[in-house]
Each structure stands twice: as C-alpha cells, then as structure tokens.
Amino acid sequence: MIDTLKPEYYKLNESGTLTQLTTENAGCNAYSPNNASEVKKYSMHQYVTVSGNIAGMDALVTSQAKIVQAVTTLKTFVDTVKFTGIEIDFEGFSRWTPQQYDGYKNFLTQLGGTLHQNGYTLMIDGPAVLAKDSSQYQWRYEDFNALPVDYLVVMEYDWQYDFGSGTPVAPLAREKEVTREVIGKIRDSNKIVIGIPSYGYHGRMGGESITIDTHAQSHMYPGYTTAKRDTSSAEMMFTHAGVFYDYADSQTVNTKRSLLEELGIKNISVWSLGGNQWFSGKVEPHS
C-alpha cells in the first residue's frame, strides 16, 4: 500500500471555474466513483489534485464569488469521496504578478480554513527555484508559514526545460541545494514534501523540443540497452541517431530519496505513477 495518492480530478478553466475530470471526458484514470474507491483501497491518504494555469488563476482570485464557488465545490467533493484533502497545483510561477500572488494566498486562506474546519487538509505545489535565481518570482516559501497550508510540495524536476535536451531532469546537487534552502524557510519541516521524478524524456541533442516518456516508453526506444548512469543525477542516459534519451529506474529514485532523507526530509512525492519504476528494497514510509 502507498502512503498517499493524488489523482487529478479537477482542472481550473481560464474563466476561473472548475471542471471535474471524469472518465467520460478525461480518460480512464480520471474521476469515477469506482476509481475513487480504488484510490482509497490502495493508499492511506488521498488528495484531489486541482491543476490550473495563470489565466485561470487570475480569473479565480480576482472574484470573491468564484473563490466561494471553488471552495464550496471542492469541500463538497471531498465530503463525497472521503479523501484526506485537496492539492492545489497552479503553475507558471515565474510569470505571476504581485496581485495574482496575493490573490492566490487569499484563495488558500479561504480554502484551507474551510477544509480545516471540516477535518480535511490542504497541500500546495511550489517551484524548485534557488534564491539567487528567484528575482522574477513572487513566490516565497516563508509566506506560507502563517497560512492554513498543511503540506508544501517542492517540484524538484523539469530542469531539462531550463538547460536543454542532453541534461538531467533533476541533478542531485541542485536537488540538495533547493531542499536546503526550503528547509531554512519553513518552520515546520514536517510540512515539506519534495517532489522527485520517475519519468524520462527525449529530444534532439542540445535542442529545446522535449518529449516526456515513461520508463515503459523509454524501454522501447533503439539504443536503450546502451544507456549509462549519469553520476550527477543517478538518471540513465543514452543517445541514438542524434536524439538524447533520459530515463529513471529504481536505482534513480532510490538515490534521490536517500539524498533527501539524509537532509532530514520525511515526505517525498514521486512524479509520476503509471509506466515508471518504483523504489526497490526500501520500506514504504507511513505517517
């Protein structure tokens, strides 16, 4: 049994309203009563993930009526499925304005307050950005110490988009540096969740066009058997016909997990399940 599962069952529209992602409109892993029951069956804790972009967030947080509507919708849903709480995954952090960031925190205050009053918890996703690189970011982890937020997920992956094809998804040194900075900003370290990648990608060497892969997909590409482990990330890498491939295996996620646990991190979130490898030879932590 996995400690926590976080299925994405809602999406924030650009109008600032929520759409439920169901098996009818979003595929087999989306919401259905049976899927929700299966999630509960195989996990100790469950969070409904709500994804959103800047346009949708702006429309939401600038309207008190839409905030109330969203809070009511999400509270009613967790009442129905009896999950642990809600995870808010609004991204595009580097482009948020000060007004949008303030509105986001106001939304979390109202959502978290309502969830707490009813015995639920709130998790939010944040950027893995170093202080020296954060001048264009409004986001400050220390701002959430005083808000009704139970867990903060630091998404320590996707760095290949910053540095281009041919580079790791998550270099160990950068994971370590970001984690240390976040630990210094959050008063209760038990609230910190570090996100690590189990996915891979491929793209023309040195290019910016990147395609995300599961391990099952990577396994099918020509050249897979020639892969070597990259010591800077513990990820597996190979090149075939000018295309670079990166993937994670059990040793990759074990190494990243061990690094974080040595820093005192107790909560780790893996992106993502389905077609990717899991920890090997390690006891599943439970809280």
Q: Can you describe what's shown?
A:
The radius of gyration is 19 Å and the shape is globular. The protein has one domain (2-199, 250-271): TIM Barrel, CATH 3.20.20. α3 crosses α5 (98-117). It is built from 9 helices and 14 strands. β5, α5 and β6 form a beta-alpha-beta unit. The chain has helices spanning 23-26, 33-41, 54-61, 64-81, 98-117, 160-163, 172-183, 215-218, 250-262; strands at 2-5, 8-12, 18-20, 43-52, 85-90, 121-127, 151-155, 192-197, 200-204, 211-213, 228-229, 236-240, 243-247, 267-271. The protein has 287 residues and is of the alpha/beta class. The strands form 2 sheets. Strands 1, 2, 3, 4, 5, 6, 7, 8 and 14 form a 9-stranded mixed beta sheet that branches. Strands 10-9-13-12-11 form a 5-stranded antiparallel beta sheet.
Topology:
Blueprint: E1 2-5, E2 8-12, E3 18-20, H1 23-26, H2 33-41, E4 43-52, H3 54-61, H4 64-81, E5 85-90, H5 98-117, E6 121-127, E7 151-155, H6 160-163, H7 172-183, E8 192-197, E9 200-204, E10 211-213, H8 215-218, E11 228-229, E12 236-240, E13 243-247, H9 250-262, E14 267-271
Parallel strand pairs: 1-4, 2-4, 4-5, 5-6, 6-7, 7-8, 8-14
Antiparallel strand pairs: 2-3, 9-10, 9-13, 11-12, 12-13
Helix pairs in contact: 3-5, 4-5
Protein name: GH18 domain-containing protein
Pfam family, one: Glyco_hydro_18
Organism: Ktedonospora formicarum
